[in-house]
Amino acid sequence: MLEPLGEEVRRELARFGPQGRIAEVVEAWPTAVGAEIARAAWPARFQRDGALVVHTRDAIWAFELTQRADEIRKRLGAERVKFVPGPLPEPRAEPVEGVSQGPPQPSPEQVAEAARIAGKIADENLRKLVQKAVETALARAPDDRSF
After folding, report:
1. Which of 26, 74, 78, 90 has the maximum number of C-beta atoms within 10 A of its C-beta?
2. Is residue 61 in some structural domain?
3. In this structure, are residues 112 and 83 in contact, taking their beta carbons and an 8 Å threshold?
4. Domain tally for the chain?
């Protein structure tokens, strides 16, 4: 019979000091900070003094999350948390709950409106491209910011 290795792995990782805790933090990270922050920041390592170093997408995210460092530190049970710009892991292949995948689908009314807007373009290929772009723009929610 096979037994789970989780406890043995944790015991072995404990030999590495604070760095051995990184697996626990990585596992808890998305739940502790939420999906939006998890897409923009990810735990990288522990420093010798026990501070958790978190890589962020850019300096703006590092600054913003530094303002919330105490809250995040408490959620993770870390001594200190330090946010710095750095490499992030590749996004997951499976969809994340609550995050739309791909462009929104236009309603029949939005398709008709896009056809009306693009209808005056003489070049057929250009008209089709413009219509598709207008359909997508009309279907996108006003508060969707995909940049």
Report:
1. 78
2. yes
3. no
4. 2
